[in-house]
Design a protein that fits this description.
By secondary structure, the chain is mainly β. The chain is built from no helices and eleven strands. The protein is globular and about 40 Å long.
């Protein structure tokens, strides 16, 4: 990311988890997609502990789609990204039945 973009771009970070025996467990390898106007803007994957970070998002409103095989996908809508700030959006996935 260019240094000039740091003042106009924001960061979205969070944690992808599931609940096992009433304990929150991080999920590795979940696909985390940022969506604008029904089009995927960028995608990343959660790390070994379930964390993800997406940098360089222009200020505005985004949707987040999180998917992992064996789990029900989760969509969060209207996430506000503010320039030069971090926005946190955690996601809990449920096992598919």
């Amino acid at each position: 990311m260019k240094a000039s973009n740091l003042a106009t771009a924001g960061t979205l970070k969070g944690l992808v988890t599931t609940t096992e025996d009433n304990i929150s467990v991080g999920l590795e390898g979940a696909q985390v997609s940022v969506i604008v106007a029904d089009t995927i803007n960028t995608t990343t994957f959660s790390d070994i502990d379930g964390h993800f970070v997406i940098m360089g998002l222009q200020e505005g409103s985004y949707d987040l789609l999180v998917a992992l095989e064996g789990y029900t996908s989760e969509r969060k809508e209207g996430i506000a990204i503010v320039a030069s700030n971090n926005t946190t959006q955690d996601v809990v996935l449920s096992l598919e039945e």
